[in-house]
Design brief:
It comes from Zea mays. This protein is mainly α and 262 residues long. The chain is built from 11 helices and 2 strands.
Amino acid sequence: MRFQSKNARYALMTLANEMSDKCKITEPIVRKSFKVIVLYDVDKVSQNNQRLIKWIIDSSSDACKIIMTCQDESNLLDSIKSRCKIISIGVPSTREVVDILTYTSRKESFDLPTSFATTIANQSRKNLREAILALEACKANNYPFIDGQAIPLGWEEVLEELAVEILDDPAPKRLFLARGKLQKLLVEFVPPKLILQKLVELFLKGIQTGVKREVYYWHAYYDKRLPVGASALLKLEEFVAKFMSIHRKSMSHEPKIPEVPQ
């Protein structure tokens, strides 16, 4: 389960209600298997949501096992850390990152010079996910690779932040902010089609099923009309504006999420 803004609280409440129902069983039973729940990026959610996670841990220890991931444990409540066994995973070496990038390129059937893979590993500060995303962006932007080719970093985080903002509040004022972020990514040589594809993936995670078909349609529409390079800004902005309009309409018919009891 990955957390995105207001959707995090809704998802956690659903999980809490499910665990609450399981806890109504009063007779002790011997469990041969457990449900395993994986919560990603727990350090990025609010303290209120972390308290809800603490309640889930306390109430479901007999019914399931919970695995949580985070990048900075200092952002976790002490009450959560005291209930967990913390396992620190060290940063991989440059050689290990290069090996995985090389393996990825072979699986995808394209050539990756070791020198270029090493450059990606170093510039991504040996963050494996960041390195793989950078390789994806480089491949989409310019292949075969050349010396001195720009390596886009952090582009996925920018799009995740943008998607969360739009899903939370698709007001017209957001369009100006979106334009700035999209322009920044294009200037940093992130391919327009990759930006569009990632935005669609993120938007689809936060909308009702009934409007997904319409989003698929407009994705295909703009994907065929996207120019290359920075000139794609206008079309990307048009797509974002179209999605915001769709999302605003769907939100007007969306039932309100009940308040979480404190």
